Amino acid sequence: MYFPIGWPKYLRQPQSDSFQLQHISCSCDRMFFSILSEDTLSVWYCKPAVQIVRYTESQRNLDEFGFFCCAEWKPDSSAIAVVTSKGCIVFFLVELDVSVANHQCLYVTQEGRNQSFRRENNGTGDGDSIPAIKLMRKCEIQLDYNITSCLCIRDELAVSTENRMLIRIRWNGTRNEKSSFHLQDISVAADFQQSRACSLSDVDGHVVQMEYSPIIGGYIMVMSTGRAIFIVPPSNRRDENAAAGIWAPDLMDASCLAINHRYRLMTFGCKSGIGVAYVINELEGTLEATHRLQVSSKDYADISRAAGSVRCMKWTPDGTALAMFWEKGGFSLWSVFGSLLVCTLGGDYSLTKNGSKLFPSTVKSMEWGLEGYQLWMICSDKEEDQQGMFQSVETTHLIQLQFVKSALTVNPCMSNHEHVFLQGEDKLYINIGQLSSVSKSSHEGSSTSSAESHILAGSRHWQVIPISHSYLANNWPIRYAAIDRAGQCVAVAGKTGLAHYALFNRKWKLFGNETQERDLVVSGGMVWWKDFICIACYNIIGQRDEIRCYPRSSKLDNTFVNISKMPSQVLLLNTFRDILIVFCMDSHVMLYSMERKNTQPNSTLEVTKIQEVALNNYIPHPVCVTGVALTSLRTESVSTKSQQTTKEAESLLLNVAGKLLMFQRDRSGPKIKEKGEQKFRLLPFCPPSVVATNVENLWTVSRTSVGKLQLTEALWLGCGSHGMKVWLPLFPRSESDAHNFISKRIMLPFRVDIYPLAVLFEEAVILGAASDAMTMKYTSPSQGGQQLYDLPYSVLERTSQIYLHHILRQLLRRNLGVHALDLAQCCTELSYFPHVLELLLHEVLEAEATSKEPIPDPLLPRVVAFIQEFPEFLQTVVHCARKTEVALWPYLFSTIGNPKDLFEECLISRRLETAASYLIILQNLEKPMVSRQHATLLLDAALETGQWELAQDLVRFLKAIDPSEADAPPPLTQFNLVNAGGYCNASPPITPPDRDGFTFSNVSNVSRMRSASVTSTEALRDVPKLKEKPKLTHTKSDNQVSLKRPSPKPRDDTNADQVYIDQILNRHARKLLSSNRLRDLGYFAANIENFHLVAWMKNERLRSAKVEDFVGALRDIHNQFEWPMPVLSFSTYQQLKFKTLSTSSLASLSLLDDDLQNPGFSNSTVLKPASPQHTTLQAGGTLKSLPSQESFQNFSDDVMLQPQHIKTEDSSLATVEVSDSSSMIGDFEFLGDITSGTNDSPSPDLDLLSQEINTKGPLQSDLELR
């Protein structure tokens, strides 16, 4: 809820102080702060933080009455009571000092040469004006005993003394004997219902600190013995014979306390360094512990020794966060029910590298500022004097911490939105990601689309909106803030008036008439409905409470406003579809229907009251209601078939001091129509049922997603240290399965690692925020700039967490696997769904495999069976195993099955990356021989599918296996594995330089041959068996090396292993070359290390490199590189034509006849060009006529190729030379009249240019061929 931000501010103190600061307290409106030292009383203003007046006590009075200890303000800020060390209370009057010129504004804000002072209608200054006040000592009252605690209760002071008296003193200095009592007259028991109660005695000690809560109805006290007690004063007792007080159970070391009035919580700090929160159990009449404020030992070890006992604690003004300080320094911030928000005991908050000095140092007193934006602290440092090693000097600092808070703290209606929205004293923080750049027209809708939700979940940046200075100057601080559902319009309300801002045009709208702005005070929240901003305000001129609705598109003026009068003060606002929910101070909830009228020139809003519900019998006090919402949820969920798109208001949700009450519609009576209308009157509500306790926030969604009804029809609850809860609907698969005795909803709790501020329902993601710290050097002003500290700078970060696996786990634990499967299947399109399955499997495995207790009904088999329903099963298992300790693998695979079987399934389904991960598991669970066999299978598959990087990793993996340890036992306790994450890296360049100096652009520069090549063709073609160690033969080069220097046996095994790998690589290369796959061969040689392509091709020139079908090989190469086929230019065609006619012989004619009779040419097409055309080689060796020369852009070389059908002694392997004794036209079956068009010969330059362009292939292929 609250997060520190920015630098801590050290406020400058007067240098004439002879005593250190002791205590700080604030006025009721938190505009003024009184700061005490032992002899001075000073009054400071909240903002700017400056000292207004200072009173110094005389030495004679100090000797007579004692030093100043603590102070309390009168509720109207007209007096201050100061308690001294000798049991005296001194009263000071706080008055406006009219003797000072311009006393309404002691300090004037000057901007440049212009300085201005504005005066409001009631005579007081504007927001920046600081009045001149004076302190007058009025009187004092001397008590018989020293005062141990003091607090203000309405118009009286309640003080406790060392003799266990509780005395009520009026502000005029007289006692109220009727309300005073002695603790020995109080009977205390374990609960209010017990008859045996005993009075307090001297053994129980005296009061150290006390607080009074009118909502709880009594005093809460911490005794000097460490026990805590709740006492009902005599004026509030109903039965004189009943016990007047009850002990807090299991609490023996309490040191301080703080009371949360809204949530009726009593929080105690303990000497052990933890805090405990209690609430009154009204059924049993006892104090019941709800949660503990204890920092995790995993993050902060030995907190009691490092930080000490809890020194002081204080709730924020809105009661949504608790600040707790320790004796030795450091502080923590907690939510209402114990979720840790900030802790300075570790990380960059420590002022020294070893963490010996905490930030802040020991806090003697603290107080929250106006609206909780600042935290005022008096910190004490004890430093060794430079003149002596054993002397210590205590210095005090007045420090101010800055905070931002969630809009949920004061405006709970923001829980309907899917944005993290934080408000500071002068800025707003929104996580809207990239949505701010979308056009205005896309924000008229009332819901967030799925694509926008993806951006919200992935964006980690804040959209920071500075609040208009023109508005903030007169209306500081910002009290309320609201954002619309699209995240594009925000509104703020300060001391008076309001202003709103549009992100799509980045402009603020303020009241043009400042009088209208100053005449209204927003007092009950604000909410957006479509393009209207609805506020609950108090009309100062009319002296009444109102609901006002201003249109966004119009000017901010009362001319365009819709006003509805309220019978009492409005405390909360919310909306549900077209219904406005209003909760008032009289404990009544009123429902209003809103209808937008598209009138010209501006749209108007019609607000009509449709229902009013009285809730006085269910609410102890209206202030305790922290949230109100209208929802379509019902305890009995309807089936998916009967689910309607338009959702009706079925239930009213009320959060009363953390207890969530649900009021459902009473459908037992008849429906009644309104007079003169066709609509039915809204049904009344039934008595409430308690849905959950310890509720801080609740989230519902008003829209319906047909594909994700389980998520959109659920109720999400934030419960502090208890994590989150989801009230999930259970839809039956068919109407016949919908039995009455089967539950229709289920409450599922789950833990979260962040504090939830928003829920993306359809994305199954929780959004939150966190504060982190960075350090800088700081020079202490008290030490003359000599000593340096590391001052922390707080930064704000946005956090997110997936929660779907928690829900699936809870459903499977409760044997609701069918509902878990339905829920998971509707989320399979999420990009992180495989990660959800991994988290589910990992958490269950860690919990059960490390459990010290036996598990009679393990959950892991059900989780495994559940994951098998999805195609990501194999990937999920291996990823989970790789992220888990090796010692847990046997337990995992004893449930899942043999990893060898999973490896084979990956090979069959061609999931080679996943199979590579299983290979790492086999290396640790099986013998090295088994890993080698499976790696060979995977290598063959990787080479066949062209996954070269994976193949290279597998080659290194095979080389790393020691042949001498092939039958060694599996290394279950080792985890030095090949990095499988490298398999997913980016592909290397297509033509990297060879490591032996060979490059594909210079094939003639061969530096050396492979040192381990196989000489036997039969040995190369034999495929080694997987389950038997292959018999490897050594090369001639190996024998030469062995003759020079005999190698030991491990070296022979290494050579044999190298030959074994070479066999696999050579076999695949031979397969590629024999099938004319030159492109794949190039990739293969470029990505496989130590494969010498030139040397290998020289060895294969008479084997696999020999071309049998030259035309087929040429066609395959052209198809692989997408390169155009060879083209006959027109000039060459003319030359060959005349040459053929002039030199034709019987031999050429016979050759032509043989070609025509060849079955391979029977389906050839005979072409007769009618105009000058080009001919190109076609499949089967035919010539195909091309378009006329004018349409050509490309031409090719004059090479004529054909398969060799008649082999002679002089013929080459794959070509037929063009000679005078051969007829090329006859070879290509060009028949018919070829004498036409001889005079239309193009120019040679145009012919050459066209030929070059026509034979040009794609750029990528050109790079590969080069």
UniProtKB/TrEMBL annotation:
Name of protein: Protein RIC1 homolog
Phylogenetic lineage: Eukaryota, Metazoa, Spiralia, Lophotrochozoa, Mollusca
Intracellular or extracellular location(s): Membrane
UniProt-listed Pfam families: Beta-prop_RIC1_2nd (PF25440), RIC1 (PF07064)
GO biological process: one example: retrograde transport, endosome to Golgi
Main location per the UniProt record: membrane
Annotated coiled-coil segments of the chain: none
Organism: Potamilus streckersoni
Gene Ontology CC, one term: cytosol
Matches recorded under InterPro entries: Ric1, RIC1_C, WD40_repeat_dom_sf
Region (Disordered): 1014-1056, 1235-1266
Keywords associated with the record: Membrane
Biased composition annotated in UniProt, kind: Basic and acidic residues: 1019-1037
The RIC1 C-terminal alpha solenoid region domain, residue ranges: 805-968
